[in-house]
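PT: before anyone asks, these are the final sequences, not the draft ones from last week. 706 residues across everything. Please model them as a single complex and drop the result in this thread when it's through.
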Amino acid sequence: MALSSLWRRIGKPAVQLRSAAAVLVLLVSASGVGTLFWYMDWIYSLPTDVPKDYNSVETGSLMDLGDNPDSVSGKPMFLNFFNPRCACSRFNVPAIKALVADYGGRVSFSVVAMLPDDDDQYTEQDIQRMLGEEVPVSFDRSKATACGVYSTPQAVLIDAEGRLFYRGNYNKARYCSAEATNYARMAIEALLGGNAGLDFAALPSYGCSLPTCVK
Amino acid sequence: MFPSDLCEMIGRMRIKDLGVQVEWKKRVDRIADLFLFTCSGLGLLLATVYDTWLIAIGTGGLCLIAYYAVKVLLPHRSLHHYVLSAAGGIYMALYIYQMHGMFEMHFFAFIGSAYLVVYQNWKVQIPMAVVLMLHHALFGYLQFIGMESVHFTQLDYMTLQVFVIHVLLATFIFVLCGLWAHLFHRLGQSHIQQSFEIGRLEEANIQKDDLLRLHADLRTSQKVNKDITDSIRYTQRLQQALLPEVQLLRDHFAGSFVFNRPHSIVGGDFLWFRQMGRELLVACVDCTGHGVPGAFMTIVATDLLNRVAREQPDQPPGIMLQMMAAEMTQCMGMERTDGVADGMDISLCRIDLVNGRLQFAGAMSPIILATSESIKVFKGTRHGLGGHVDPNQETFATHEIDFAEGDMLYLFSDGYTHQFGGSKDKKFSRSGLLALIKRIHNLPVEEQWTKVGKAFDDWKGAQHQTDDSLLVGLQLKSASAASPSVMSSAA
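LR: through. Structure below.
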């Protein structure tokens, strides 16, 4: 509707009144934007809800993942619990690739795709295109239960003896944006260096809940 | 060029400039619409990367609402330009957030700042710069104190030195774009000023051409006017040749005067005189119209009078008028509805000075007889000669009047009595004429002539002359009985 016809219909208010309305709109908009940013930060600062029937798996537990030949190859095993529909998982792809590049020779990397049963959109090739051709992909979600994983993206590091060395976030925060808290890398370094190091077990999990990405 | 014309021209030019500015503002606003929707669309596009739909829709929507609300509420202010500037800063913060601190998203600040140059106003850079400073200061601080999920940069760490360089670069861009905006503004103003000057010169040239053309037209008109005036003056000589010479009146009446004041150089009023044995035929004729058309009618009327006087010399004036009416109807096609509807008022007198007898017939025209005892008005019929009137139905009564030697007979056209003037701008009227005659009829004709002219002029004053005006005074006394005295005037 043309502005003039709008004014004709409602009657043109005084300039002071319109100015006050404009200031009000600006204040509300600015507050709204600020609130949105704050809300998003608040939401994503919360750890993922722990499932009711969750069984924690303690560090040092002997892991039986069955089908993985690397568990007896003498190399530590790094499992990347990954959901291509999870924004956090996607964001962490470069960080994972960097780990594979840096430690691929000494650590056996693999991907556990955490997708619902009815989601057949992603194939092994799709996942490999995202994370690297050489990384084996498993769709066995029971590994998550076995490792005590209840969100994505999560890193699980199992030492050469098949014991759980690290299970948790790639980073302190949801996204791998702070090198100082790059826990996955720190865990690999600690394992390869023979250092029990940090107490990672106390860290809560962040990311998307399973099996579907809620946030 | 007149000052008023100059003012009008400058006014037009300013309106033209204002029109250019309004058009420019509209264009800038259209670009702003495109910019805003593109930014919001980009936010939605980026939302697909890390599923940041809520903040993309919320922030983009609020920016759009703020911008268009301010634009609608205060359409004649430029506040919405500043809102758009601030929105540009917010979009940058949004993109940085959406891409979780992707450093390249900071470059949007440069794009936004460069876009704002379109407003040609360096101050518009300020809101965006302020939003950027607040965003960088707040989010940078929060990230570096270790707050989780604050996405400002993906760099491993940013020292104070890097941060300062970052701020300096941004400041440099904003200052540079502000400077460009200011320079463009000055260039634009200069361009408008030049356009104004060019327009003014073009306008002046058009005015000059107009004046030259008018001058040429005026010269042509003057020549045409002179030709026409010369023709009319020649016509005047012809008309005067047709009118009875004053000498004829002098030969037959002891005293007489003719007050003839045509409306233009030539007129439609005239006096006709013919001697018929011992009788004298006198007619005062008022043809329709004045100026050249009236003068043409006088020729027709003179011819008719001459013909009737020649062919029917013994008929009373009433019959003569009837014959004239019939002739006129026939010769001018008045029986047809598409014929000439013009005609004439006439008072026709047959005067026998020896026996003191007078026959009078009038068509819409009376005569006045002033005796020593009374002033009498003899009215004509209530219709004139000519026009779309059935000549067979027209009758003109002939009055038989006795007079004493020395009585004054006045014949006149309605131009004298219809002249507007006086203190109340009214007609002189027949009663006014009767009062005048009452005052002057005993005076010598010379004085009467003078007073008739003076009364007319005094009454008319500065007013425009209404019509041709003719007033004839005849002293009903044979010239052979007294020394003749005739006065005549024609303006």
